[in-house]
Specification:
Mean pLDDT: 90
Strand content: 15-25%
Low-confidence stretches: 1-5
Strand order of the largest sheet: 2-5-8-1-9
Largest sheet: 5 strands, parallel
Number of helices: 11
Helix content: 40-55%
Structural class: alpha/beta
Shape: elongated
Number of strands: 9
């Protein structure tokens, strides 16, 4: 089955429609491993560039705004953080900022991201070397999170991102990278609750089995206890196709 033969799930139709229409604040949420980050980096108008921030407990505002680094002259120069680089884009138009796993950002970083992702008219920051800077026209933000319910996000964040789309299926282009016998099962298991299997696990299994065989690949990826169940499910799915 080629990519063109695979129907585009509604969630991906919605993402393409929203980003192609120029909507500049979007949240993509739902199970991991479905392509949310890829969509943020590539869908819609990203000609001015796209920058990515991955939120963690250890992340600091320096990752967002920037910090001083030693230069070749023996002094110090300010290196812009990803958010300020995205604000500036290509120097004429603002770029795209993709913020992954926003729910894992600490308090200071979260507050900074709220300021950074405010409307173009309201957002501003005093740069240590350039004075007051603002996002250029065209700046856009896609936030991703693996949470299942938007109610878990703070109201101030949801207010800045009026469009939220739950991604519950992998994109057909991502499934097309798998062997044909795995695609339908991988699509079904992406949103299977506690039984969910990440697309990354399918990629690992598919790659390994070419050299070590199906059973050993399943054991290495899923463990001894789950390997047989995984292989049985693939066999059953193949018969049902």
């Amino acid at each position: 089955m080629s990519t063109s033969d695979m129907a585009l799930p509604q969630c991906w139709k919605d993402v393409e429609s929203v980003l192609n229409a120029g909507t500049d604040r979007v949240i993509l949420f739902g199970p991991p491993g479905t392509g949310k980050t890829f969509a943020g980096l590539n869908y819609g108008n990203t000609t001015a560039g796209a920058w990515r921030l991955i939120c963690t407990d250890d992340m600091t505002t320096a990752d967002v705004l920037g910090h001083y680094i030693p230069n070749a002259q023996g002094g110090w120069s300010y290196k812009d953080g990803s958010a300020i680089e995205a604000w500036n884009g290509d120097g004429q138009n603002g770029g795209r900022l993709v913020i992954d796993e926003i729910d894992k950002a600490g308090g200071d970083v979260f507050a900074t991201l709220l300021a950074i992702t405010d409307t173009v008219d309201s957002a501003k920051w005093k740069h240590p070397e350039r004075g007051e800077v603002r996002p250029r026209d065209g700046f856009s933000v896609v936030m991703t999170t693996n949470i299942e319910h938007m109610e878990e996000l703070p109201e101030a964040l949801k207010d800045r991102f009026p469009v939220a789309i739950r991604i519950n299926e992998p994109h057909p282009a991502a499934l097309a990278k798998l062997s044909g016998d795995l695609r339908e099962y991988a699509a079904r298991m992406a949103d299977a609750g506690e039984r969910r299997i990440s697309l990354r696990a399918f990629y690992a299994f598919d790659s390994l089995r070419s050299s070590v065989g199906d059973r050993e690949a399943a054991r290495l990826v899923f463990g001894e206890n789950r390997a047989s169940a995984f292989l049985d499910a693939i066999a059953i799915n193949a018969v049902a196709r």
